[in-house]
Amino acid sequence: MRKLLLFLLALATVAVLAACTANDDAGEDPADDAEAEETESSEGEGDTEGLEEESGEKVLRLNNGVEPTSLDPSIGFDAVSWDPLNNLMEGLTRLDQDSVAGPGVAEDWDISEDGLTYTFYLREDANWSNGDPVVAEDFVHAWKYMLDPNTASAAAFLAYFIEGGEAFNTGEGSADDVAVTAVDEKTLEVVLEAPTGFFLDVLTNPAFFPINHQVAEENPNWHAEADTFVANGPFMLESWDHSSEMVFVKNPEYWDADTVKLDKVHFAMVNDTNTQYQMFETGDLDTASIPPELSDQLIDGDNVYIGDYGGLEFYRFNTTMEPFQNKKIRQAFSYALNRADIAEYVVKNGVEPAYGYVSPGFTTPDGRDFRDENGDLVELNPELAQQLLAEGMEEEGYDELPEVVLSYSTSDTNKAVAETMQSMISENLGVDVSLENQEWNVFAEAQQNLELQLSRSSFINDYSDPVNFLESFVTDSYMNRTGFSSAEYDELIANGKAETDDEQRYEYLYEAERMLADEMIATPIRYYNTVVLEADGVEGILRHPVGYFDLKFADRN
Amino acid sequence: MLKYILKRFMIMLVTLWIIITLTFILMVNVPGSPFNSDQSSNETIKANLEAHYNLDAPYHIQYLNYLKSVATFDFGPSIKQPNQTVNDLLGRGFPISLELGLVTIAVAVISGIILGIIAALRHNGFIDYMAMGFAVLGISIPNFILATLLIQQLAVNLNLLPPATWSSPAHMVMPVLALATGPMAIIARLTRSTMLEVLTQDYIKMARAKGLSPWKIVFKHALRNALMPVVTIMGTLLAGILTGTFVIEQIFAIPGMGKYFVESINQRDYPVIMGTTVFYSAFLILMLFLVDIAYGILDPRIKFHKKGGE
């Protein structure tokens, strides 16, 4: 019996030692104990919250999926960071209920005749959550910080529209040459590199949010924890239990605080589609995404929100590899695809097949949709496909088509789409392609290095203008990944960005898109969309086609 | 004994060094980069990012930096969560994984041993078949299936327990059940088979002949020898469960450290890969070492050193 006791003792030692290593690994940080307390106190909060809700507080429970990469506006270059940030902060402009850039911190602005100089007038009552006024210097500080090569911001290229921005970011220029100046406390002047019709829209991106320069100079890590975070948006950060939960409360200092209806927003971090759906079922979450297996069952429900989302799934042809150096062969492959079937039966979840590159939801100067205006650019046409293939092969002197490998990054949906394409190409074109999948990161590298013949891609808009997608294919663009190069196309895109007459600008963009389809550098498959389950009583969450969801007008009854 | 421990410690350091070096070689040879993204980017942005994280340095410099970071146990900031150091991530995640792991191990070991003993004592009886049938189920149902089923039944349908997240003891019930079932089944089967073997030994017959009560025979004479194989698997089991499990933590949204093992590799988050690898290796080696010590205590025939034994 004594030996048994000894054994139990040994087990206990194991446990204690294990606990010790835990403390060692925490880097002898005294904060460790504080953290434990924090978790306990947040439990306590959980209890009181229950009471608060009974007392009529409006609380919304959302899921952010994972921990935000960073709440530093210049660093967190992804939806998981920008969705929370968009509700904690506000830029000069903010997307309104029609998803158009309207006044934000800037009450009003002037644009010079040549379209180069923007003067923004900041609201007198725009304040930070610590009571400081939001001043022009906060924007100057934030933008120069984003462009500083030492910051290594992934979003910095968005600020290349500003004169001197690119030079500073590449290390050739200096911060002083970046043409953004605080004229006085509430007036900001920005000079652009070239006229940019959609600049006000670009400014709604979280990368352009201000940073309270006084706070940031004192504590460069102000954005890392809830107690140091200063917000200037509809909400402020009450608590942030890393990798677990964020709690936002209404920001009384926000200039439009009267419009904000919610008192509290919880952001859970549940990264499993089934679990978050089950939490929606039990009422622990107010919104959820639809697990793919349940799509057929749930997609037609009354509580489903389906909306446009600026983005495209497409396949790139590598024009530097046989047989896709030939335009007709590229076109032949594109005509062989039945996109409607792929969208409806393979991807499901209410997505729309793509017959053009620019996704629906971009409004032209005369108020129509870019997509309707430029029409369908690709279609299913097996006869034409076979004819083009025969012509292309003759041009190249092929007796037999070189082997074609269709590549995609490993995922269930990508695999299903690729297999469907394989069978469509075989059926409609009589060509047997082989499939190859690679781990995402390996795949991305190979695609970048032009090692893949025909490979899957996805594009999500960074800003709300059709040129955002189209400019990917200019010569030597990092996003090109096809080997395509055309002086004519480059010129169309340059004009499509800088033309000051908006109607003429759109003409250039229509032409660029048509040229892309004619050259068939990439073949569109389907547009992305937003599908969300919303609990009864959840109202007014703005989900922009491009941009991040906005809870300013949201309500929870 | 002290000499043995010292020797083991030296071997442990060498093993760690080999693991670090191999991990580094594998890491730099896997194609891809932490900065690959479907989102727009350009060469400047990538170059700035690489310079920021010293990834533009030659490999031997990077290797020396890694060795230094291991020696000082300071792996620097995570690339994918730049506001947090690897130590922050592990320091926050490990206590949670450890808490879940210890409860799981306790449940698995206690219930596994009891189940095994009962099955052995009622050998070929109804209870034996029941217990072993249960064990086979436990081994063959993957824990992520069990986890989803538990949530669906206990949280969604019956509304007894919270479905996920980590804030109260009630949140712990389902993850522990899902995690403990597999190890429990393995322990039960191991205990049963060795127990059966031990019970046929002469010294047990002797004990019976002396007229000792069956329970005394089981606990005093049989169990200790029967536990040897269980102790053997404890080392890997402890290291595996205490450092967190990716799937269970993901399903129940538990902020432990399990996810970093998998996600850091997918994201090529080099500092986190090194941090988790070193941490896990050191932990595993330590557990194996403790298991060796436990052998000596359980079975005096195993000696660490000629002079070291009893």
Brief sketch in words of this structure:
Chain A is an alpha+beta fold. Chain A has 18 helices and 18 strands. The longest helix of chain A is centred in the first third of the chain and has 24 residues, at 2-25.
Supply database-style keywords.
heterodimer, A: 557 residues, alpha+beta, 6-stranded mixed beta sheet, 4-stranded mixed beta sheet, 18 helices, globular, disordered N terminus, B: 310 residues, mainly alpha, MetI-like fold, 13 helices, 0% strand, disordered C terminus
Folded structure, characterized:
The complex is a heterodimer of chains A (557) and B (310). Chain A has 557 residues and is an alpha+beta fold. Helix content of chain A is 36%, strand content 18%. A 6-stranded mixed β-sheet of chain A has the order 11-16-12-15-13-14, sandwiched between helices. In chain A, strands 1-10-9-8 form a 4-stranded mixed β-sheet. A 4-stranded antiparallel β-sheet of chain A has the order 4-5-7-6, with helices on one face. In chain A, strand 4 and strand 5 form a beta hairpin. The radius of gyration of chain A is 26 Å and the shape is globular. Chain B has 310 residues and is an all-alpha fold. The longest helix of chain B is centred in the middle third of the chain and has 36 residues, at 86-121. The N and C termini of chain B lie close together (11 Å). At the A-B interface, helix 1, helix 2, helix 5, helix 8 and helix 15 of A face helix 2, helix 4, helix 6, helix 9 and helix 13 of B.
